[in-house]
């Protein structure tokens, strides 16, 4: 089955992902463009709206009634079924009728396009007919002028209604992500109450059809490809909208527009960027900071699983965060494997707030998410290094694949390199299918048995023995705090599940020792960056068609990564020769 969603998500092996993510981290982040963290779902005031531009279709943000949801669901299920290859095991027995997926209200404004909202009355909708060019730029406060002045004139701006693109903040394989502001004097101005700025993922339709290399689709002709890509985007949006409602650990969905040339997914802006970049910056996270991230991720996954939705692409690149003020350590603590010259200070961890500049963490990117309605699904997807063995082995899998992904993230945060890596995709696949990973010395020497136990329970080969999300949330390590006095810790534990929502502090109790080890260089995160930077042809050997399809589109990695790797290798070489 061709998962077109995978094409949107430039799915790639883990280290390819790492390289991609670090590119952004290394070029630095803008952490000053604040937005409130208020969940959009709290605001019921989104108006139903339409505009009369014949070139633009508007998708209102309202939740449709059951009838509408059923018709969209039927359409999506049809899409899934018609998109399946014989090897897929998604049957109608496995798929119950979706009643929880809110439909996207699609309003016809172009005669060539289809309307999906038979129940929406025109009279009930305020008219939104302004275009961005109608909106004056000069009505901003002086202090906000810089934040609100577009960096340049973006092509993508032309067809976008009610938002002003300010600057590009990210790029996927088939999308660009912009920081934008709800335009003043537009019907979106009310959004500024909750969102000073938003993130807009722009997918160019032409790019989707040009990269859709699935031979089955080609056989069906261009139109079916176009329809399938569109359905896939609508499905991603519908799932994003569903799962982000009432969950503050998931990036909020705000709005969606489709125009002649683009899809625009408007979402909450997380100004810190990806957790991945922070792992590269800090080399690894302390146990308390790792907990801080995993707890929030676990709550997001708990919410998704309770809705029957599996994310299927949990990785550090898909965890975004809001920055917090950094408080330097009074005396920086090092692990014995650290290079004191280059190890960045994580700073002081503040309970309920975070540390290392990382505050609120939210799960993003629902391009591979799927609503499953029974235990099993069997669609190959995901990012190779973080993929569960049952997926690699092409067996049935379920929600437990997300638990494996959490295990990979936890492992990576704790030590700074992923649990499974091999230059050769075939060998990597083998390692994953055997669950072959180790707590490598010296990097894992100072990591607590509790943390290791959590990793072991998450990276359990047999899905039925692997932690489920509730077991993870009850894990003793996840609910203990290195930084807190024991009395406070036990009282926090007694407080039960409500405590799960709080963040905890670390004053770091790691011992400071001088490193004198010969490092296993190829296992290290930064070296794996280098390997993939220089040997990207490896990516073309990816076993899965859907994943292979994006391989040629992977971008050349930043020179800065190579420079950083060279510096680190220089240090390791020196250490080895001592
Ligand atoms: N809501 C957001 N707030 C801040 N940055 C974002 C947001 N959404 C995406 N980004 C940034 O834009 C980049 C690309 O976004 P996204 O991952 O959604 O695109 P994609 O095409 O799905 O990419 P991928 O191929 O990695 O799945 C990400 O690296 C992320 O850093």
From TrEMBL:
<keyword id="KW-0808">Transferase</keyword>
<feature type="domain" description="Protein kinase">
    <location>
        <begin position="163"/>
        <end position="478"/>
    </location>
</feature>
<keyword id="KW-0418">Kinase</keyword>
<feature type="region of interest" description="Disordered">
    <location>
        <begin position="489"/>
        <end position="509"/>
    </location>
</feature>
<keyword id="KW-0112">Calmodulin-binding</keyword>
<keyword id="KW-0723">Serine/threonine-protein kinase</keyword>
<feature type="binding site">
    <location>
        <position position="201"/>
    </location>
    <ligand>
        <name>ATP</name>
    </ligand>
</feature>
<dbReference type="Pfam" id="PF00069">
    <property type="entry name" value="Pkinase"/>
</dbReference>
<keyword id="KW-0067">ATP-binding</keyword>
<dbReference type="GO" id="GO:0004674">
    <property type="term" value="F:protein serine/threonine kinase activity"/>
</dbReference>
<dbReference type="GO" id="GO:0005516">
    <property type="term" value="F:calmodulin binding"/>
</dbReference>
<dbReference type="InterPro" id="IPR011009">
    <property type="entry name" value="Kinase-like_dom_sf"/>
</dbReference>
<feature type="compositionally biased region" description="Basic and acidic residues">
    <location>
        <begin position="489"/>
        <end position="500"/>
    </location>
</feature>
<keyword id="KW-0547">Nucleotide-binding</keyword>
<feature type="compositionally biased region" description="Acidic residues">
    <location>
        <begin position="139"/>
        <end position="149"/>
    </location>
</feature>
<dbReference type="InterPro" id="IPR017441">
    <property type="entry name" value="Protein_kinase_ATP_BS"/>
</dbReference>
<feature type="region of interest" description="Disordered">
    <location>
        <begin position="123"/>
        <end position="151"/>
    </location>
</feature>
<dbReference type="InterPro" id="IPR008271">
    <property type="entry name" value="Ser/Thr_kinase_AS"/>
</dbReference>
<dbReference type="InterPro" id="IPR000719">
    <property type="entry name" value="Prot_kinase_dom"/>
</dbReference>
<dbReference type="GO" id="GO:0034599">
    <property type="term" value="P:cellular response to oxidative stress"/>
</dbReference>
<dbReference type="GO" id="GO:0040020">
    <property type="term" value="P:regulation of meiotic nuclear division"/>
</dbReference>
<dbReference type="GO" id="GO:0005524">
    <property type="term" value="F:ATP binding"/>
</dbReference>
<protein>
    <recommendedName>
        <fullName>non-specific serine/threonine protein kinase</fullName>
        <ecNumber>2.7.11.1</ecNumber>
    </recommendedName>
</protein>
<feature type="region of interest" description="Disordered">
    <location>
        <begin position="1"/>
        <end position="58"/>
    </location>
</feature>
């Amino acid at each position: 089955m061709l998962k077109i969603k995978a094409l949107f998500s430039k799915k790639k092996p883990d280290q390819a992902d790492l390289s991609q993510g670090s590119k952004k981290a290394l070029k630095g982040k803008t952490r000053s463009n604040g937005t409130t963290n208020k969940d959009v779902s709290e605001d019921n005031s989104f108006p139903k709206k339409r505009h009369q531009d014949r070139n633009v279709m508007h998708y209102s943000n309202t939740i449709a009634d059951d009838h509408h949801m059923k018709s969209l669901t039927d359409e999506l299920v049809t899409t899934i079924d018609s998109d399946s290859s014989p090897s897929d095991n998604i049957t109608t027995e496995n798929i119950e009728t979706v009643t929880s997926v809110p439909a996207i209200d699609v309003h016809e404004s172009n005669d060539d396009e289809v309307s999906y909202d038979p129940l929406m009355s025109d009279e009930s909708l305020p008219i939104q007919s302004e275009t961005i060019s109608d909106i004056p730029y000069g009505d901003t406060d002086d202090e906000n002028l810089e934040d609100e002045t577009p960096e340049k004139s973006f092509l993508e701006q032309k067809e976008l209604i009610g938002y002003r693109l300010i600057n590009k903040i990210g790029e996927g394989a088939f999308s660009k992500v912009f920081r934008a502001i709800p335009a003043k004097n537009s019907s979106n101005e009310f959004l500024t109450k909750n969102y000073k700025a938003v993130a807009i993922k722009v997918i160019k339709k032409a790019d989707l059809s040009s990269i859709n290399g699935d031979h089955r689709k080609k056989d069906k002709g261009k139109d079916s490809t176009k329809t399938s890509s569109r359905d896939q985007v609508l499905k991603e949006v519908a799932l994003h909208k569903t799962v982000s409602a009432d969950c503050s650990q998931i990036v909020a969905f705000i709005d969606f527009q489709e125009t002649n040339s683009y899809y625009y997914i408007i979402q909450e802006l997380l100004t810190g960027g990806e957790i991945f970049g922070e792992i590269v910056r800090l080399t690894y996270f302390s146990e308390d900071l790792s907990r801080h991230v995993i707890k929030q991720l676990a709550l997001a996954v708990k919410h998704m699983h309770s809705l029957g939705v599996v994310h299927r692409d949990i990785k550090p690149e898909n965890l975004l965060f809001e920055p917090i003020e950094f408080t330097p350590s009074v005396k920086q603590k090092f692990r014995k494997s650290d290079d004191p010259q280059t190890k960045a200070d994580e700073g002081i961890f503040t309970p309920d707030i975070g540390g290392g500049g990382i505050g609120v963490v939210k799960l993003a990117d629902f391009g591979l998410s799927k609503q499953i309605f029974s235990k099993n699904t069997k669609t190959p997807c995901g990012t190779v290094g973080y993929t569960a063995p049952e997926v690699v082995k092409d067996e049935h899998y379920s929600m437990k694949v997300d638990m494996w992904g959490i295990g990979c993230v936890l492992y990576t945060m704790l030590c700074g390199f992923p649990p499974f890596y091999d230059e050769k995709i075939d060998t990597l696949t083998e390692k994953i299918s055997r669950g072959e990973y180790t707590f490598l010395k010296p990097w894992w020497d100072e990591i607590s048995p509790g943390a290791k136990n959590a990793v072991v329970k998450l990276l359990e080969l047999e899905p039925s023995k692997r932690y489920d999300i509730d077991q993870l949330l009850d894990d003793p390590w996840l609910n203990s705090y290195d930084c807190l006095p024991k009395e406070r810790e036990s009282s926090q534990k007694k407080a039960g599940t409500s405590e799960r929502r709080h963040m905890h502090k670390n004053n770091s109790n790691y011992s400071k020792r001088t490193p004198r080890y010969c490092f296993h260089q190829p296992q290290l995160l930064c070296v794996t960056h280098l390997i993939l930077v220089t040997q990207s042809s490896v990516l073309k050997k990816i076993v899965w068609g859907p994943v292979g399809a994006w391989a040629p589109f992977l971008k050349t990695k930043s020179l800065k990564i190579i420079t950083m790797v060279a510096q680190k290798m220089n240090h390791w070489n020196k250490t080895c020769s001592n």
